[in-house]
Specification:
By secondary structure, the chain is of the alpha/beta class. Helices cover 31% and strands 23% of the residues. It folds into two domains: 491 residues, ANL, N-terminal domain (Rossmann fold); 122 residues, GMP Synthetase, Chain A, domain 3, CATH 3.30.300.30. Strands 12-11-8-6-7-14-15-24 form an eight-stranded mixed sheet, with helices on both faces. α6 packs across α7, α8 packs across α9 and α14 crosses α16. It starts with 9 loop residues before the first helix and ends in a 6-residue tail after the last helix. The model has no long low-confidence stretch (mean pLDDT 96). The structure holds adenosine-5'-monophosphate-propyl ester (PRX). It catalyses: acetate + ATP + CoA = acetyl-CoA + AMP + diphosphate.
């Protein structure tokens, strides 16, 4: 197949911060002498006490420890707000676009300062101090940003839980980090539909307890239950406090936030990011990858419940004094032109979204795009999953009118910021490739034994050395951190992704190589969906795998063995889908449920997922070695009853 290459447009090479020569120079310097490189770039944020030590990292088995700028003192909210007040007090910091197209709001840096200080004072009056954990379960409204920055201002550690998660999922996350305070809204609003956030918080707290205060922001005005002594309306509490609140001095390695993410085993892990290195890395990648210049309007469509929202709606852009757009709604409400209309309405220059959204909108055809102008657009971005070349081409040709480079950014919750991506003025594009590593990032492709493979090759993606945005630990479980990321290939960070490197040194992410699936850019542990299924009284066993899905990237395929005597009915199938929705959240709903009287197991009783994956992928002729199965006839039944893709 002829590979398409899109060269860097000449005007881009000229106006961007870095062209190809400069990229090579900076990249080589960052690898040759990381200390010197980050010593220079760490000063892009303001420090109350400047650091002298730059990097103090060990990836050694059993003693992994990651510290950056450790003797520096700073505060993230100070960097995202206060330091801009003198020069940009009246500049818009946040453009908020509501679910309803008639609703929007502009918030200047000065207003942001006042709002965040008020929010911080409300929290402080409820006993929140440096190091305390605060769970934020919010819709995409400005108060979600105020709440996060208020925590950062006080030195409290926020744990944002995506508003689409169920009460049970929320409860597990509140309990794991022992949050005493939860911030929520009466209801969320997405695509015209209401989400009962406060009721979900009540249900979660009823399950785990331990929460002393619930701060409730009024969004829809719904009538919600308020528990006296525990629950308070934000607008009432905010009316009683001032808009002055000092920033807590934070050491570079003091925690900033926890974000729960799925792995291949067990319950979600609390990924912990700290203060200094995270902010340096988020702001630097935001500037260079998106080539952000003063005055640009930047829009990242993620939810603040995911790391993309943390790093590229909030922290990276605000640290850079940017104007960042926050969108409450969904791409197809009120119609399929919504994204493009928002771009025209707010004159967005840089637009960053997920392949799943692009594929869904592509299905709606060119017309909803073409009836908008999009003349303000200069750069497009993609994140969350591999982008197939067809979707890339459509994004480039139809959305960007062939004028805008696309940065396909590969990274993870764990990495804090983008690790592999084109820089638009420096790196020629190949549709489907995340291209080249960012400064300071040293990717390695290894085989199953951990041997480092050179040149054009394919294998498992590791990163050989630390970068400032790297997660520091799993909250409360450093052993799990080391076991998950540093034990497979000792001395390296293992990403869990497969990857190919071509002859030009370009990286092509091929997807997860562990039992994690990526559904519409949402990361899901198959083990989590399985444990939700077996919690149902009629289910005896379940195995979940991913399969290729036209819009979602991967769909969820569940093989379910029922308890003896239970009938495999259509009704039960629907009930199980609803059950998983309720247990985890709508994003975990199985797309296909196959009733399987038996699952393929080895003689020692281990489920052979490889075979289940192949069947789900329709690769019947390529099942591999089935001779180790305890009962090979199981496979014929599974193939015979395979569910069809929708
Ligand atoms: O498999 C990779 C995929 O998403 C995983 C990380 O998921 P999460 O922690 O939820 O973070 C998503 C947003 C940063 C990765 O291990 N992934 C992310 N970006 C890309 C990608 N796969 C291919 N190309 C990408 N650009």
């Amino acid at each position: 197949m002829q590979e398409k290459v899109y060269e860097v447009p000449a005007d881009w090479a000229k106006r961007a911060y870095v062209d190809e020569a400069r990229y090579r120079e900076m990249y080589e310097a960052s690898i040759r002498d990381p200390e010197a490189f980050w010593d220079e770039h760490g000063r892009r944020i303001d420090w109350f006490t400047p650091y002298e030590k730059v990097k103090n990292v060990s990836y050694a088995p059993g003693e992994v420890s990651i510290r950056w700028f450790e003797d520096g003192v700073t505060n993230v909210a100070y960097n995202c707000i206060d330091r801009h007040l003198e020069t940009r007090g009246d500049q818009t910091a946040i453009i908020w676009e509501g679910d309803d197209p008639s609703e929007s709001r502009l918030i200047t840096y000065r207003e942001l300062h006042d709002e965040v200080c008020r929010f911080a004072n409300v929290l402080r009056n409820r006993g929140v101090e440096k190091g305390d954990r605060v769970t934020i379960y919010m819709p995409m409204i400005p108060e979600a940003a105020f709440a996060m920055l208020a925590c950062a201002r006080l030195g409290a550690i926020h744990s944002v839980v995506f508003g689409g998660f169920s009460p049970d999922s929320l409860a597990g996350r509140i309990e794991d980090c022992a949050s005493k305070v939860v911030i929520t809204a009466d209801e969320g609003l997405r695509g015209g539909r209401k989400v009962p956030l406060k009721a979900n918080v009540d249900a979660a707290i009823a399950k785990v307890g331990g929460v002393d205060h619930v701060v409730v922001v009024r969004r829809t005005g719904a009538d919600v239950a308020m528990e006296p002594g525990r629950d308070v309306w934000y607008h009432e509490a905010a009316a009683l406090v001032t808009s002055e609140c000092p920033c807590e001095p934070m050491e570079a390695e003091d925690p900033l936030f926890i974000l729960y993410t799925s792995g291949s085993t067990g319950k979600p892990k609390g990924v912990l990011h700290t203060t200094g290195g995270y902010l340096v890395y988020a702001s630097m990648t935001h500037q260079y990858v998106f080539d952000y210049h003063d005055g640009d309007i930047f829009w990242c469509t993620a939810d603040v419940g995911w790391v993309t929202g943390h790093s590229y709606i909030l922290y990276g852009p605000l640290a850079n004094g940017a104007t960042t757009l926050m969108f409450e709604g969904v791409p197809n409400y009120p119609d399929n032109s919504r994204f493009w209309r928002v771009i025209d309405k707010h004159q967005v220059n840089i637009f960053y979204t997920a392949p799943t959204a692009i594929r869904a909108l592509m299905q709606a055809g060119d017309e909803p795009v073409k009836k908008t102008s999009r003349a303000s657009l200069r750069l497009l971005g993609s994140v969350g999953e591999p982008i197939n070349p067809e979707a890339w081409e459509w994004y480039y040709r139809v959305v960007g009118d062939g004028r805008c480079p696309i940065v396909d950014t590969w990274w993870q919750t764990e990495t804090g910021g983008i690790l592999i991506s084109p820089l638009p003025g420096a790196i020629a594009l190949k549709p489907g490739s995340a291209t080249r590593p960012f400064f300071g990032v040293k990717p390695e492709i290894v085989d199953a034994e951990g041997k480092v493979l050179e040149g054009a090759t394919e294998g498992n993606l590791c990163i050989a050395d630390s970068w400032p945005g790297q997660m520091r630990t799993v909250y409360g479980d450093h052993q799990r951190f080391m076991d998950t990321y540093f034990a497979t290939y000792p001395g390296k960070y293992f990403t869990g992704d497969g990857c190919r490197r071509d002859a030009d040194g370009y990286y092509w992410i091929t997807g997860r190589v562990d039992d994690v699936i990526n559904v519409s850019g949402h990361r899901m542990g198959t083990a989590e969906v399985e444990s939700a299924l077996v919690a149902h009284a009629k289910v005896s066993e379940a195995a979940v795998v991913g399969y290729p899905h036209d819009i979602k990237g991967q769909g969820i395929y569940a093989y379910v063995t029922l308890m003896a005597g239970e009938e495999p009915t259509e009704e039960l199938r629907k009930e199980l889908v609803q059950w998983v929705r309720k247990e985890i959240g709508p994003i975990a709903s199985p797309d296909l449920v196959q009733f399987a009287p038996n699952l393929p197991k080895t003689r020692s009783g281990k489920i052979m997922r490889r075979i289940l994956r192949k069947i789900a992928e329709d690769e019947f002729s390529n099942l591999g070695d089935t001779s180790t199965l305890a009962d090979p006839s199981v496979v014929d039944d599974l193939i015979h009853n395979r569910q069809n893709k929708r």
